[in-house]
User: Which sequence fits this backbone?
């Protein structure tokens, strides 16, 4: 760690601003900035913006992009790379830097000249028939983070087999400061950096084509917030262009990398909707819509009996499934060969609904790249893609993108809520009707934040404990299955069988009565995620079960944290 720090501090090629930052670091800051190198996780490479090997800066970015460029030259980079960025600190600089590194490798790029959402980047890769894509974003992370997502020629984030090939190239670079980067003006003059013309318009038209009901007057009133992010123009344009009354949260429409007008730039958190709720009450609005800064995630609040009710990702996903399949069934377009994707940490609620329609459901590992990978394989398997989603508020409703798409999801949510309003129902009424039919599925996510190298060791110890733990019962429910995705084993009472998934540091315990929990270290943040899911005859009973499950799990992990 200190050797890395000294090498950076003493290298004459380090810029002076970074050198001053290094000189001002405390011992604790040095340890966190240099104890490891940034690595690829479920959402690409993310880190705190700053100097150091465990930080995102021009040098760590160049190394990652250089490795990606070498990978592309092996698989075919002649069709170029699409690059987009969000609103975060240095996002525009990092996007241009990525283009200049690729230019030095002789690779052409299509660089968006203003911030654009992740789903547009995914769409653009296939639309322009490019060899790959780079999105500079840290999604919903705190303001001091940034990152990059890297895509293949199908507009899908790199799956582990491809990411490993990039990492292999990255690891050939021993000197962060030796990577060549072509001057930006020269790169543009020589045609290495171009603008992707017409792509955004084609994407918007493709999104509008998702509608089941067109050509009638909409009665839904909405408030939309991009949480300072990339969808500040595109989603209001799409919704208003489809006839919806759209108001916005003015203070959060501003491009602000510090997210000063919002408590959390994450639509998974109810506090992200505070200003939207105020505007909603003032304007008698039915639906509040929020997307995260790069617009791949969607959050909703629905007005019900005069108050706004927050909807979880699993609840929204279940409603999407019933609405989409019901609309297809009504129009006679429900396919016999349809397939819906979720993940191993997604509630069984949506899957139960899909199977009632006779539609197959397949679970992937966490990370939308795994859903994207399966999407592109379906035509060869004689299957038709219907929808993919995960509990963390990510949805793709048509195969125009191979990543989460908050723009698609916003339009579908508005149509669904509008159709229900015409029947005198809210989304909460709709959700309750699904609970009555399929059971009260409820879920909760525990986020255990453990920072630095000590935190990483604590997370490792907790995972090792649960990897060894195999109870006969839990909360008076018999253990049916234990799945260890790192070891690749599914264990039952007296038998075990291989899991057909890529290796991943995930452990899942499945008990009787649709009760389960999963432990998974975050791939992009210093935290341990624990997913809890239950099913009961009533919401009150299910919520009580969730609380009890959380208490028991906390009791098991607290000794590791307190030590």
Assistant:
């Amino acid at each position: 760690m200190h050797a890395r720090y000294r090498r950076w501090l003493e290298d004459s090629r380090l810029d002076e601003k970074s050198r001053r930052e290094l000189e001002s670091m405390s011992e604790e800051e040095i340890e966190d900035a240099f104890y490891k190198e940034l690595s690829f996780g479920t959402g690409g490479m993310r880190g705190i913006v700053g100097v150091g090997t465990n930080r995102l800066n021009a040098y760590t970015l160049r190394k990652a992009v250089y490795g990606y460029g070498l990978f592309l030259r092996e698989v075919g980079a002649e069709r170029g790379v699409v690059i987009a960025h969000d609103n975060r600190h240095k996002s525009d600089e990092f996007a241009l830097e990525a283009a200049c590194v690729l230019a030095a490798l002789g690779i052409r790029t299509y660089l968006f000249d203003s911030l654009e959402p992740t789903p547009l980047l995914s769409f653009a890769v296939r639309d322009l028939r490019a060899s790959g894509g780079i999105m500079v974003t840290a999604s919903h992370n705190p303001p001091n983070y940034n990152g990059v997502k890297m895509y293949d020629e199908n507009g899908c984030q790199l799956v582990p087999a491809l990411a490993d090939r990039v990492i292999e190239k990255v690891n050939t670079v021993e000197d962060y400061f030796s990577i060549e980067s072509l001057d930006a003006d020269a790169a543009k003059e020589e045609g290495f950096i171009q603008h992707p013309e017409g792509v955004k318009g084609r994407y918007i038209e493709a999104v509008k084509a998702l509608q089941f009901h067109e050509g009638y007057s909409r009665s839904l009133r909405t408030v939309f917030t991009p949480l300072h992010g990339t969808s500040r123009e595109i989603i209001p344009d799409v919704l208003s262009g489809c006839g919806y009354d759209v108001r916005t949260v003015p203070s959060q429409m501003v491009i602000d990398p510090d997210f000063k007008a919002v408590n959390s730039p994450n639509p998974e958190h109810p506090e992200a909707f505070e200003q939207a709720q105020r505007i909603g009450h003032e304007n008698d609005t039915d639906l509040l819509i929020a997307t995260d800064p790069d617009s791949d995630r969607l959050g909703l609040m629905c007005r019900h009996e005069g108050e706004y009710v927050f909807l979880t990702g699993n609840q929204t996903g279940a409603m999407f499934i019933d609405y989409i399949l019901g609309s297809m069934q009504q129009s006679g377009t429900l396919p016999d060969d349809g397939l819906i994707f979720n993940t191993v940490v997604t509630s069984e609620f949506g899957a139960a609904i899909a199977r009632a329609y006779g539609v197959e459901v397949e679970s992937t590992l966490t990370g939308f790249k795994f859903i994207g990978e399966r999407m592109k394989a379906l035509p060869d398997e004689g299957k038709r893609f219907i929808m993919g989603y995960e509990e963390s508020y990510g949805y793709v409703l048509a195969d125009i993108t191979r990543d989460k798409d908050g723009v698609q999801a916003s339009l579908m949510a508005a149509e669904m809520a509008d159709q229900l309003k015409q029947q005198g129902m809210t989304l909460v009424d709709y959700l309750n009707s699904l609970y009555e039919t399929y059971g009260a599925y409820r879920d909760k996510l525990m986020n255990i934040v453990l920072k630095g190298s000590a935190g990483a060791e604590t997370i490792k110890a907790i995972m090792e404990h649960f990897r060894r733990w195999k109870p006969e019962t839990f909360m008076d429910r018999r253990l049916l299955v234990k799945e260890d995705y790192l070891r690749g084993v599914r264990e039952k009472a007296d038998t075990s069988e291989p899991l057909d998934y890529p290796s991943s540091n995930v452990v899942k315990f499945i008990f009787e009565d649709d009760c389960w929990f999963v432990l998974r270290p975050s791939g992009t943040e210093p935290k341990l995620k624990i997913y809890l899911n239950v099913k009961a005859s009533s919401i009150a009973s299910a919520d009580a079960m969730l609380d009890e499950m959380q208490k028991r799990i906390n009791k098991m992990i607290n000794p590791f944290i307190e030590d």
Notes: The radius of gyration is 24 Å. DSSP finds 18 helices and 23 strands in the chain. The chain has a mean pLDDT of 95.
